[in-house]
Amino acid sequence: RALALSAEAREAGLLRPSTAAEAASGLCVYNAAVSACEKARLWDLALCLLAELRDEGLSPGVVTFSAAISACEKAQRWEWALELLGEMGACRVKPELITYNSAISACENGQRWRWVLWLLSRLRADGLMPDVVTYNTAISGCAAGQRWELALALVATMRSEGLRPNLITYCAGATACMLSGRWTETLGLVAAAKEDAVELDATTASVAMAASENSGLFAAAPDMLFGCQARVRDFPTANSTNNNNNINWTKR
C-alpha cells in the first residue's frame, strides 16, 4: 500500500498545483503516502516523499512531518527524527504533542537520554503539556541511561501535574533504580505502585524480587507481591534481570 500511494503521489505531482484546492488535494495524497510508509517502516521512502512534495511546490504540514518523524522513530533513526523536528521550526510549522512523543520515543530507542530530556523541555517551551505517554517514554530513556535520580524526579513531576502513573511508569522507574543499584528506591516505587492499585505483572515483580534479594530485604517481597497474577516460577533470577539492560518499557 505504501508503494501504491507513493506512485499516486508522484502522479498527482506531475503538474504543479495552480489553486489552493489542488494544493490541498495533492498534500492529502502525500500525507496518506507518508503515513503508509510510517506503518510499513519505510522511513527512507517517507523522507523521499517529503522532498518530492516540496519539489512540486507543496508545503508539508504538521501531519506530514509527524508521520515522517514517526516513521523514523519506528526505524530507530533518532538523528533524522531530530532533523525533521528542526525543519518544522524552519518552516514555521508548530509541532503537536504526538510529534514530540514520536521524537522522544526515537531518542529513547536510541538510548539518547539527554536528547529525551531536551525534547521534554522544548515541548513545554512550545506551550504543550506532556501526557502519560510522554513521561513514560522519558522515564524509560532515563532507565536506559541508568539515571535513577532523573527517573524519580519525572515520576514526582507527573504526579504534581495531576497525571496518574501506570504500570509502565513504575516498571521504567524501578528498573532505572535497580540498574543503578538503588535497591531501596526500587522497592519504594514498587510499593507505591501497589498503593496506587496498579496490578503488577511478572516483569515488575521480578524487578522487586531482585531488589529485595540484593538489599537483604527478601522477606518484604511476599507482602509486596501479594495479588500479583504472575507466577513466581516465571520470574527471572536477579542476575538475569540485572543483565537485561535493553528492556523497552514504552512498548509494553
TrEMBL record:
InterPro entries: PPR_rpt, TPR-like_helical_dom_sf. This is Pentacotripeptide-repeat region of PRORP domain-containing protein. The keyword Repeat applies. PPR repeats lie at residues 26-60, 61-95, 131-165. Keywords: Repeat. The keyword Repeat applies. Gene3D superfamilies: Tetratricopeptide repeat domain (1.25.40.10). PANTHER family: OS03G0856100 PROTEIN, OS12G0638900 PROTEIN. It comes from Polarella glacialis (Dinoflagellate). It comes from the Eukaryota. PROSITE patterns: PPR.
